[in-house]
Amino acid sequence: MAKKNSAKHRSGCPVSTALDLFGDRWSLLLVRDMMVRGYRTYREFQHAGEGIATNILADRLKKLESHGILVREATAEDGRGTHYRLTAKGIALAPVLLEMLLWGAHHEETDAPCAAIEQMEKNRAAVINEAYRRWEQRDTTPLIPPFTAQRKRLKLKSPKGKQKR
Question: What's this model's pTM, rounded to 2 decimal places?
Answer without folding.
Answer: 0.79
